[in-house]
Amino acid sequence: MMMKHQRGVALSGLLFWSIVLVLVAVLGMKVAPTVIEYYKIKKDCKGAVAQVGKDATVADVKRAFDRFAEIDMLDFKADQLDISKEGGQIVVSFAYEKRIPLFANVSLLIDYQGSTLER
Fold this sequence. Notes:
Order of helices and strands: HHEEE
Mean pLDDT: 91
Strand order of the largest sheet: 1-2-3
Radius of gyration: 23 Å
Structural class: alpha+beta
Number of strands: 3
């Protein structure tokens, strides 16, 4: 008589994959706000450039950005922006690091950078 093999998930496998899933979910919940902040900064840079026009000064662009950043409740300030002109067009770029504490003395460091020239 042939024995049939049991099929299914072992308790140890279920526990292992549950722990992996929880760790990935926690990491995602910690990283998602910083990614959202990055896209808000990028959107606000483009909005500030569109609002001030081509003949604006650096101070005009910074004031416009600060208004957008205040509405979006960003901690990012206009002083961190690099504002220049390329081909008669105002270009705003930025770069910053975000350190996300994970547990104990382990943290995740993400380098964000963006510009109004990017799509």
